[in-house]
């Protein structure tokens, strides 16, 4: 066969066997306002070949009609065990309407009298013939399905062979059912109608939650760890929202303590992993935790609590491919292990009978199986060489056609935020939307790849969406939304603007690929497309969302042959060609040379732009409604009922700020440091202008006031004084420390989880070779003179702060365990406070590892019996840290010899019998859980409140205090700040300090006066003030997240603590957009308010299927049905709108109920 014959044959597409399509022709009068937007001609499929069922004269009753609606896919399809609401329901005699009391509800809707609306005319669009040349058959095509794992066999089940004369198929558990479509079409989250749709979509779950009566106790927690895992309602919600059948790109799981965020993300991934690769990005310390959670709530095959039997390879040589396929293991792995663990679902679990060695072997196999399905990367250990190898030197996008899960995403976002705006060359794109040049910073490379990824589902996990900078929110939601890719076509019309605009609406109104289009008066047509794989769903000329379900009809290609049309499977290049062809076919010329793609972001991601648009006066958030629109459909917010099991803690009464006056000696050394710091700050700011008006966000590094912060904790006696990093002047040490910090980490994502360098770590990294020797000499001096330095009188001079901490810890009323936190590990932090404890009756709790590998106590005889402290700062080995943590938590392994030694001292450590004080730093204590900690001592403030919350969270976990008496199940927090007395301010400090170290806020002059004024503040007070101001901003921004969440209305109920005002848009038309591609064209909140009118209506109590709703009469033939609970909320709070759940229409004398 010649090459020409091959090409000719390839041009002739094969004809698939035609399936019969059944149409149901039922005349239903459309009485909604939406019908006004539809075109007169709705016969868009007149050219499609459809075989109709001949029903003849058979009578069709109401029940038969509903049954056949179900058969046509109009109703929901759910997983086994899920409840379901049908979309069509006809009112019966048991449903009741009752006039409510004389109460009107008021809310705002868009004022259609003031706002010009777009009337979309729909027409049939003739399929265009493709005249492109045939594709080179050797060209590598991009994969849209999951690539088989390397080395893993892919044997069809019918070819599986027996193992030990038994069928493997009968033994292994079936895979979990994938999440399937629950409605026939999904509204895009860029439309206002999305809000009503999603509230209706989750209405069944809301009913369950309102009727739920949970009574949790710590005794119930962990009772049955081996019970079958079942998804909770909030986990089903996110699974149903983000899956193969929904058009949504990403979701932030902003879920509280005890909610099971990891299992929620696994539920999403498990529903998609069969067709997409799953990439999990975690901090290095949390990877193991994620894998263990997959074994708990992932695929049944990954669960350890089953019957496992070892199958030696010598007994199953012929079944190698079968075992590889069934278990997802590479054949090489099975050969290397000389066998495999095979599960038998028909037998009870035998885990308890396996030896430790067998369990270790099984765990290794499960890890291997999981890592075949899940691809793990540590985002705080990823190097440039690794990313280049994963992406073919950046030619491929790692995240295309995948599910991406990022754990503790706030730390990942923080890395991006720290690098934005620091690149010499900005990222640019060509006219086709392809990137011209990648950034240098690895964090920004990942940012661009995630923004550009096609056909991706992104899941973010965090309990704290913002750490430090407000623009972190912009980065986070930009990734979830992805670039809003907008095609710009310059037209050369032969007719006037109004005529062309009307023509374009007629042409593109019902186009299956297009999502949004706008024609400007400068003749530019802007278009966005539907998500990859999705097409517009139209019913009687009205937009009903998008769908990716297979079509029942087939269309003809250019050669007149029938082809199967996969929905939405069209490349960007073909999409552009298609638009141009449609325009030219309708006599609208296009300047092809001016056609380009513009890449819009959902939100500004640089601090100045974000602050200008969303931050108002007095640390408030402005344009809240605009922000809600831009992030609509991208968040899930949930607080677990298990939070009730947290130990008592009221931030108002249990968070105590301890202000301590400096000693005169301390103040003198402090002022010397501040003078040097101010000089350096002046130099630096002259080179780099301030980027925010309040100065809250201009100090990005740990070098901010580093020495004066250290001197707030402790000052060295003179001599010897404090060792400087470079044996030079303080000003030069500060300059070098500050200058070097900003240069770190541009080529890799290494470091601790937060991506921040602690203050003293930063000094050490930029010190000279002899710095550690000088530190050692200083510590030696302190130990030798400790009796005079660390007694009460000495501390009053050198560290009044440490004296207060010591007395608070030793106070007889403060019974129980104490947690001490500092940002500084050496000298003025944990290092010197350790000496304070040593000289005041405490000793360090130490353990040592013997030659046989067994851990033992390492406390000298003279120190036995003293109260102890333990260190958990990052300098200890991981094994040592974990043993110390378990001893502190009273979680003692009976199989360890050290446990017998501990029990000789006490039966547990609930009251500090073994370890009274645990001292931690940020880098040494990432993600740890502590038990029975009643007192938290935060040595110094931090410039963002998230760090403080995280420290408190270490001590306050669900059921962490269950072993203590009820009256001791609480947490108290002390934050220590150094201050200056009024006398010191007047007499002891310089004019420079008085002038330049003023507070940002005004404070009350005295308790008896209402007068306020700015005051001189220390570095401790300045940082705390910054943190407090940021807290106000962060609280405002996180409230926006909560109120725009997809499940806000689902969880909202009267009497809840937060009283959120969930986003609502009244009764919008389906064509109304919630946001536009270009944020600069989005109206501000002030402008939007002018376009709204107040609507008042009197609700009628309506009992439907035994459940109370509220009915609003719209016309004689149309009623709106609202959720009862939200209606009651709106009566109490006029800012809350009732949730529109159903629309009821009268059709041929019958009331028909439809989901919104």
Question: How would you describe the overall organization of this protein?
Answer:
Residues 675-694 are annotated as: Disordered. It comes from viral metagenome. By secondary structure, the protein is α/β, with parallel strands linked by helices. It has 38 helices and 36 strands. Strand 24 (847-849) and strand 25 (855-857) form a beta hairpin. Helix 19 packs across helix 35 (1019-1043). The longest helix is centred in the last third of the chain and has 25 residues, at 1019-1043. The model is unreliable at 12-62, 65-88, 111-140, 552-565 and 740-747 (pLDDT under 50). The strands form 10 sheets. Strands 1-36-35-34-33-32-2 form a 7-stranded antiparallel sheet. It has a 7-stranded parallel sheet with strand order 20-29-28-22-27-26-23, sandwiched between helices. Among the domains are: 1-60 and 117-145 and 484-600, no CATH class; 646-980, Rossmann fold (3-Layer(aba) Sandwich), CATH 3.40.50. It is globular, with a radius of gyration of 33 Å.
The count of strands amounts to 36
Q: Report the CATH topology name of the domain at 646-980.
A: Rossmann fold
CATH homolog superfamily of the domain at 646-980: P-loop containing nucleotide triphosphate hydrolases
CATH class of the domain at 646-980: Alpha Beta
Low-pLDDT stretches are: 12-62, 65-88, 111-140, 552-565, 740-747
Strand order of the largest sheet: 1-36-35-34-33-32-2
Largest sheet data? 7 strands, antiparallel
N- and C-termini, Cα separation: 58 Å
Radius of gyration: 33 Å
Number of helices: 38
Provide the CATH architecture of the domain at 646-980: 3-Layer(aba) Sandwich
On the 0 to 100 scale, the average pLDDT is: 81
- Helix share, percent: 25-40%
Q: Pairing-aware structural class of the strands and helices?
A: alpha/beta
**What would the principal axes of the Cα set say about the shape?**
globular
Strand content: 15-25%
């Amino acid at each position: 066969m010649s090459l020409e014959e091959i090409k000719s044959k390839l041009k002739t597409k094969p004809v698939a066997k035609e399936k019969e399509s059944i149409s149901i022709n039922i005349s239903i009068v459309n009485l909604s306002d939406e019908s006004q937007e539809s075109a007169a001609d709705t016969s868009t499929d007149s050219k499609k070949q459809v075989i109709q069922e001949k029903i003849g004269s058979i009578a069709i009753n109401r029940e038969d009609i509903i049954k056949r609606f179900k058969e046509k896919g109009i109703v929901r399809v759910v997983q086994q065990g899920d409840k379901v609401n049908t979309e069509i329901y006809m009112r019966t005699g048991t449903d009741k309407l009752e006039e409510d009391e004389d109460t009107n509800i008021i809310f705002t809707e868009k004022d259609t009298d003031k706002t010009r609306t777009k009337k979309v005319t729909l027409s049939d669009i003739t399929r265009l013939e493709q005249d492109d040349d045939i594709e080179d058959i050797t060209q590598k095509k991009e994969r849209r399905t999951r690539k088989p794992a390397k080395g893993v066999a892919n044997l069809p089940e019918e070819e599986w062979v027996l193992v030990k004369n038994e069928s493997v198929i009968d033994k292994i558990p079936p895979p979990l059912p994938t999440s399937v479509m629950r409605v026939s079409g999904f509204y895009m989250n860029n439309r206002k109608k999305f809000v009503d749709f999603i509230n209706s979509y989750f209405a069944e779950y809301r009913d369950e939650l309102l009727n739920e009566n949970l009574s949790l106790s710590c005794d119930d927690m962990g009772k049955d760890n081996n019970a079958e895992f079942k998804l909770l309602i909030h986990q089903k919600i996110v699974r149903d929202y983000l899956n193969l059948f929904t058009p949504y790109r990403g979701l932030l799981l902003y879920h509280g303590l005890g909610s099971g965020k990891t299992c929620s993300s696994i539920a999403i991934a498990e529903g998609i992993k069969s067709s997409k690769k799953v990439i999990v990005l975690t901090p290095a310390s949390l990877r193991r935790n994620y894998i263990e959670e997959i074994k708990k709530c992932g695929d049944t095959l990954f669960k350890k609590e089953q019957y496992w039997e070892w199958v030696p390879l010598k007994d199953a040589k012929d079944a190698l491919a079968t075992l590889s396929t069934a278990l997802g293991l590479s054949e090489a792995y099975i050969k290397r292990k000389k066998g495999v663990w095979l599960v038998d679902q028909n037998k009870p679990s035998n885990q308890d009978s396996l030896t430790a060695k067998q369990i270790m072997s099984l765990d290794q196999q499960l890890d291997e199986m999981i890592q075949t399905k899940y691809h793990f990367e540590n985002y705080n250990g990823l190097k440039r060489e690794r990313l280049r190898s994963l992406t073919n030197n950046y030619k491929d996008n790692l995240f295309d056609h995948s599910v991406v899960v990022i754990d503790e995403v706030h730390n990942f976002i923080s890395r991006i935020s720290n690098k934005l705006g620091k690149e010499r060359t900005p990222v640019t794109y060509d006219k086709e939307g392809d990137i011209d040049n990648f950034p240098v910073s690895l964090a920004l490379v990942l940012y661009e790849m995630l923004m550009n990824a096609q056909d991706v589902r992104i899941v973010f996990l965090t309990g704290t969406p913002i750490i430090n900078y407000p623009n972190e929110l912009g980065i986070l939601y930009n990734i979830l939304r992805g670039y809003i890719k907008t095609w710009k076509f310059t037209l050369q019309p032969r007719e006037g603007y109004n005529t062309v605009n009307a023509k374009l609406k007629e042409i593109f109104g019902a186009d299956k690929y297009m999502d949004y289009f706008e024609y400007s008066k400068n003749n530019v047509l802007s278009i966005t497309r539907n998500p990859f794989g999705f097409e517009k769903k139209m019913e009687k000329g009205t937009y009903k969302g998008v769908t990716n379900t297979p079509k029942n009809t087939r269309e003809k290609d250019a050669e007149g042959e029938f082809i199967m049309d996969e929905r939405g499977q069209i490349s960007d290049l073909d999409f552009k060609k298609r638009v141009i062809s449609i325009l030219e076919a309708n006599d609208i010329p296009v300047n092809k040379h001016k056609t380009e793609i513009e890449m819009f972001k959902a939100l500004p991601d640089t601090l100045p732009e974000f602050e200008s648009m969303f931050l108002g006066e007095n640390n408030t958030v402005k344009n809240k409604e605009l922000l809600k629109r831009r992030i609509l459909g991208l968040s899930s917010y949930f607080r677990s009922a298990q939070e009730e099991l947290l130990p008592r803690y009221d931030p108002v009464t249990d968070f105590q700020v301890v202000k301590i006056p400096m000693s005169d000696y301390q103040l003198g050394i402090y002022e010397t440091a501040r003078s040097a710091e101010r000089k350096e700050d002046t130099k630096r700011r002259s080179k780099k202008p301030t980027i925010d008006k309040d100065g809250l966000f201009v100090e990005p590094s740990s070098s901010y006031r580093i020495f004066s912060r250290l001197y707030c904790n402790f000052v060295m006696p003179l001599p010897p004084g404090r060792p400087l990093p470079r044996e030079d002047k303080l000003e030069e040490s500060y300059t070098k420390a500050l200058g070097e910090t900003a240069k770190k980490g541009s080529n890799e994502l290494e470091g601790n989880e937060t991506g921040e360098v602690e203050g003293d770590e930063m000094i050490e990294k930029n010190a000279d070779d002899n710095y550690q020797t000088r530190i050692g000499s200083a510590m030696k001096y302190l130990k030798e003179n400790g009796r005079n330095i660390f007694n009460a009188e000495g501390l009053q001079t050198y560290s009044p702060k440490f004296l207060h901490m010591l007395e608070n810890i030793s106070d007889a009323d403060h019974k129980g365990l104490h947690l001490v936190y500092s940002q500084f590990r050496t000298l003025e932090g944990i290092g010197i406070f350790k000496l304070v404890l040593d000289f005041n009756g405490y000793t360090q709790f130490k353990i040592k590892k013997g030659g046989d590998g067994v851990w033992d106590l390492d406390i000298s005889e003279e120190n036995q019996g003293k109260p102890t402290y333990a260190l958990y700062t990052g300098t200890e080995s991981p094994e040592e840290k974990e043993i110390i943590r378990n001893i502190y938590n009273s979680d003692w392994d009976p199989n360890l010899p050290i446990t017998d030694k501990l029990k000789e001292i006490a039966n547990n450590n609930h009251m500090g019998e073994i370890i009274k004080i645990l001292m931690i730093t940020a880098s040494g204590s990432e993600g740890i859980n502590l038990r029975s900690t009643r007192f938290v001592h935060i040595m110094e403030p931090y410039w963002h409140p998230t760090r403080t919350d995280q420290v408190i969270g270490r001590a306050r976990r669900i059921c962490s205090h269950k072993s203590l008496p009820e009256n001791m199940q609480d947490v108290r927090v002390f934050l220590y700040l150094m201050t200056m007395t009024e006398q010191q301010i007047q007499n002891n400090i310089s004019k420079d300090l008085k002038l330049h170290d003023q507070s940002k806020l005004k404070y009350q002059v005295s308790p008896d006066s209402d007068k306020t004024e700015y005051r001189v503040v220390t570095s401790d007070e300045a940082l705390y003030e910054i943190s407090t101001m940021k807290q106000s901003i962060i609280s405002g921004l996180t409230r926006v997240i909560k109120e725009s969440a997809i499940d806000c209305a689902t969880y909202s109920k009267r009497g809840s603590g937060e009283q959120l005002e969930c986003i609502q848009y009244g009764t919008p038309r389906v064509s109304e957009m919630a946001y536009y591609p270009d944020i600069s064209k989005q109206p501000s909140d002030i402008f939007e308010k002018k376009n709204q009118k107040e609507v008042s209506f009197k609700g009628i109590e309506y009992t439907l299927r035994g459940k109370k709703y509220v009915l609003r009469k719209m016309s004689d033939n149309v009623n709106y049905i609202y959720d009862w609970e939200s209606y009651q909320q709106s009566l109490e709070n006029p800012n809350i709108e009732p949730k529109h759940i159903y629309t009821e229409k009268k059709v041929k004398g019958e009331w028909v109920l439809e989901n919104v």
